[in-house]
Amino acid sequence: MTTSTPQTMYEKLWQTHLVEAAKGETPLLYVDRHLIHEVTSPQAFANLRFHNRPVRHPERTIATMDHNISTRSIKIDAAGEGAANQLRALAINCKDFGIELFDMGHKNQGIAHVIGPELGLTLPGTIIVCGDSHTATHGAFGALAFGIGTSEVEHVFATQTLRQNKAKTMKIEVKGHVGAGISAKDIILAIIGKTGSAGATGYVVEYCGEAIEALSMEERMTVCNMSIEFGAKAGLIAPDQTTFDYVEGKEYAPKGEVFEQAVVDWKNLKSDADATFDAVLTLEAKDIKAQVTWGTNPGQVISVDGIVPSPEDFSDPVEKESCVSALNYMGLTAGTKMTDIHVNKVFIGSCTNSRIEDLRAAAGVVQKYEGQQVVETIDAIIVPGSYRVKEQAESEGLDKIFTNAGFEWRLPGCSMCLGMNDDVLEEGDRCASTSNRNFEGRQGRGSRTHLVSPEMAAAAAITGHFVDLNA
Amino acid sequence: MEKFNTHTGLVVPLDVANVDTDQIIPKQFLQKTERVGFGVHLFHDSRYLDHAGTKVNPDFVINKPEYKGASILLAGENFGCGSSREHAPWALQEYGFKVILASSFADIFYGNCINVGLLPIKLSEAEIEQLFKLSPNAQLTLTVDLPNNIVTCGELSFKFSLNEFQQYSLENGVDSVGWTLDKLDTIKAFEEKMPAWQ
After folding, report:
1. Do the Cβ atoms of B86 and A151 come within 8 Å?
2. Pairing of strands B150-153, B156-159
3. Which of A108, B1, B85, B168 is a good FRET partner for A436, with 20 to 30 A between their CA atoms?
4. Residue-range definition of the domain harbouring residue B128
């Protein structure tokens, strides 16, 4: 046995991927898996063509159509000409550069961050990148996963590497166990409420503690997915038996002896017991209640049994001013009970909350309301994250539970999370959304987004307002 | 990428914290396959009163006549948070910005700016505050000297720092892909040692 300095999981992932740290240069890291989609890749392909450069490892690259596809039709032009142009460009680029593409209606198609894990493309101990900030999702497996810009997409295409400065490390420990009915979404929103929307800028965050270990892989993905929403470069959760059991047997995952060797290596990934972090945050799981955002960034969040805050509640002048402008944009009055806020749109979907467990949780709430229907004035849509999720949900009869209660059951895609297709809110619409961003105009110009769990979204659809399901 | 040496330009103050990339360039303008055509849509929802972008909002700072031709954006903290869309720096650059000053930037946005040759400069909160206080009263002109890492504004001067390689890349307009491709042998040697499952 050699003795060495104790390392965090991030440091181990860094060391095992460090190709070169040349003097005067930003360190060069190896990228194991590159996920691409139609919106952030075309300009990168164009530059490859310009320089006559190939994609170095097409087999490490996987493409899907997700951001601006229609959720009503698998026709490539169903969401408009702009979308169709990008989708066609992706198909041509993938063909020309030899990249596997899950195109419209393919059984493996879906949101990049949903299909990566479910196909076994996402593995512990790897570096995964994608031109999308929610790539942090894959950190749930103990992979260093982060979003990149189009110039970096081009760099990965051509070299299978990326230059990265080393981030600081933050440990977020959620002690004990959450109460009944508290979801992974509530855990991550409560964390962001505590740190603020830029609280982890410059850090890679590691989530740990009993409440995190108790989560399923789908729930862990929801937690890691929103790491970017408080500025973190990436979020990590140590792989354990839950992880290995999930990965084993997946289509693209290693098989047989190779898988067994992988598990041996993956077991060494977790942070050493005496590793030190640059920052530590601790939460008590029992204190976490169901969360609803009231403002225009994900840090402006409160428990459902709370009230809309007042600018006077904030001592920091920037937060005070942000509160004033958020209340104005959201059309809310300080002091209003969160449960008195009525919505007219409900969206259950996105890379945060569109997996099978999310749909089961939402359907479970619908069933609790025994035969009650979605409020007549509310449009409520359910958008599964992938064709595999859709198929699984339908085999369990979840689609019928939703449609019988008045929800619309759509085709997979990113949909209303960012509204690049025709799933867009109108000005003044108020939406209970299971997505990840409540920025001004995110779901449509002048629209108002409240971020919630799938359970809360389902309850809001049926009652018309937010509900303290545990009261 | 164009080389960056020094730049002198007019400053426009956007005193708002947490300006996200959805505000910088809303999603409906991302459906392009080229790198051009984004500048006209920069800050669309604030800059225009209507969805179609035909009615200019006279109250939005960038639209004010005294800031016409500004090439330096003085921004609030956590500028560029949110999505990884490089369309945000493309839009800023195409509008005419060469430099963004803020006390903090979101990580992905910061890297994207460097990669396209738009210089993001981090100053302290107090320094940024000082500039915001000056800007409404006078048309503020700044000079950014990248080789010496100094921002000067009349009598004031502020030091800033940049990662060594990023500084070199900006000053020399390095083709970062070409630079790394010169190290292909090192990358190949690394790949040979990777475990089978990886």
Report:
1. yes
2. antiparallel
3. A108
4. 6-192
What local confidence, expressed as pLDDT, does residue A4 receive?
79
Is residue B163 assigned to a domain?
Answer: yes
- Angstrom CA distances, B36 to B39, B41, B90, B176, stand at 8, 11, 8, 21
> Which of A25, A123, A132 is the closest to B165 by Cβ?
A25
Here the CATH number for the domain that contains residue A137 is: 3.30.499.10
- Segment B112-142, tens digit of pLDDT: 999 999 999 999 999 999 999 998 767 899 9
Residue B11, phi-psi category: left (phi > 0), alpha (psi -120 to 50), beta (remainder): beta
Task: Judge whether B197 lies within some domain.
Answer: no
pLDDT digits (tens, 9 = 90+) for B52-110: 999 999 999 999 999 999 999 999 999 999 999 999 999 999 999 999 999 999 999 99
Asked whether residue B73 is assigned to any structural domain, the reply reads yes
Is A109 within 8 Å of chain B by CB? no
- Whole-angstrom distance, CA of residue A166 vs CA of residue A148: 15
Q: Which two tokens stand for residue A271?
A: 């942070």
- A314 and A443 fall within a common domain: yes
Check which CATH number belongs to the domain holding B95 and give it: 3.20.19.10
Contact of B187 with chain A, judged by CB distance below 8 Å, is answered with yes
A68 lies in the same domain as A126: yes
Q: Which amino acid is at A139?
A: G
Q: If contacts are CB pairs under 8 Å, which of residues 185-204 in chain A contact chain B? A: 197-198, 201-202
CA distance A307 to chain B (A): 23
Q: Is A224 annotated as contributing to ligand binding?
A: no
A256 within domain boundaries: no
Does A412 reside within a domain?
Answer: yes
CA B41 to chain centre: 16
pLDDT score, position A187? 98
Could you give the ipTM of this predicted complex? 0.97
